[in-house]
Amino acid sequence: MRIKSGVRIAGIKPELLFGLRVAETVYEVFGFPLIVTAVVDGVHKVGSKHYVGMAADLRISHLGNSIAPQIVAMLKSLIDQDFDIVLESDHIHLEYDPK
Fold first, then answer.
1. What is the pLDDT of residues 63-98, one digit of tens each?
2. Domains, the chain
3. Looking at the chain, which runs of residues are DSSP E strands?
4. What global pTM score does this model have?
């Protein structure tokens, strides 16, 4: 797992760390490194779980065009119960959000 320079991880919750570890394994299955581009830093919508250490953004620009949806599908099959996993235009949003 790589953390983009400047990304702050202080206050990250253990549940999100678990999700990141699963994401790292999934990225490795496809032959790519996991690169975390935001956790508690950056600008996000009001009330975002980023600000409480329960969300992270994962880089997709280094993946092939068809790989990101496959990574999202595999993540959802492994940890969908307590996580929201959303493919955005430039990243995968991973959020611990138990129902």
1. 987 899 999 999 999 998 899 999 999 999 999 998
2. 2-96 (3.30.1380.10)
3. 2-3, 35-38, 55-59, 83-87, 91-96
4. 0.92
